[in-house]
Write a structure and sequence with these properties.
Dihydrodipicolinate Reductase, domain 2; Rossmann fold; globular; 36% helix; 14 helices; alpha/beta; 395 residues; 2 domains; 16 strands; six-stranded mixed sheet
Length: 395
Amino acid sequence: MKRTLNIGLFGFGTVGRGLYDVLEETQLKEARIKRICVRNINKQRGVEADFTDNPDDIFNDPEINLIVELIDDAEASYTIVKRALERGLPVVTGNKKMLAYHLEELVEIQRRTSAPLLYDASACGSIPVIRNLEEYYDNDLLISVKGILNGSSNFILSKIFNENMSYPDALRLAQELGFAESDPSLDIDGFDSLFKLIIITLHAFGRYVSPERIFVYGISTMNDDDIRFATEKERRIKLVAHVEKLESGNIMMSVIPQLISRDKYIYSVEDEFNGVVIKGKFYYKQFMFGRGAGGYPTGSAVLSDIMACFYNYRYEYKKLNAEVVPEYTDDYTFRIYLRYSSDGDLALFNFLRIREKYESETSKYIVGDVRLADLCRVKEQLRGRNLFLAAYPED
């Protein structure tokens, strides 16, 4: 690769502008943005840069030797990244939804063309979790990766539990501060965390699992009864993504609110921060913490990927290429808290064991054990119902 990276940048939203400002501040000689492709060429952006609305202006520029893709449209992102890789151009991307659906194919294209694709910024904002999983945890001693992967939902939950703010008011504040979109469903329903978990799992255990197979449930139906239950049990509700290697050698995956006790690392992860706990067979637990939302933290992570490209770094996918790769399984049992309103809602759940049950004129809940497979079976039927569920770990 040439010793100066001439970047063709796609997208100039929050993260794209964050990257631009970070590059301006650092004044790097190794990398510069040569041209920026945007959807609306007429929009005033307040910077002196070469803008275009035609992707060909970037792909046909012989001086551009690195594509950085930071747009929010997953399908358009896929088209750009695939085109670049097939032409042998290195790519940095932050689009976790695109990666979650197309990572298998893109890894294969990298093998064929030897063009690297880097995406540390896609998983946890400023936390370099992917590169650490690739380089430091590149053995079979890893047991689990668990944590808060979405800063928007964590900001909302922090305001609820720390400042007694109502859920609607906390969501509104997150939107006003730019931590949540006008349509916040990807964040609060758990899908943003799901996409990140899929990427992390590939690097942690070498197994790609498609989004449709994984149980995901968010916080959009949480109400005051659920907050009161958590407070009475001296716990906090956190939206947690979790992959774990079981005694069978297979891995389970889920994204679900959890009732977290005070002695856990992620209990104290607040506001728009992310926190990831990596557990190993002999080193027990290691904790990574950092900002997971915002243009500058994510822009800084993108810059780290850019500089990795400058030094010819690429993911080796060591675990993906291992002799034995664990299979995904939903043969796993949770203890859950379920708040429900009707017998029809309750009938969706096949409790193996009921540990606690409460009913009043205004609220009903059950604490009991359910199989992950049973939750996966009814996950689409749970949407839109007046109920809320959360994993309720015993430790």
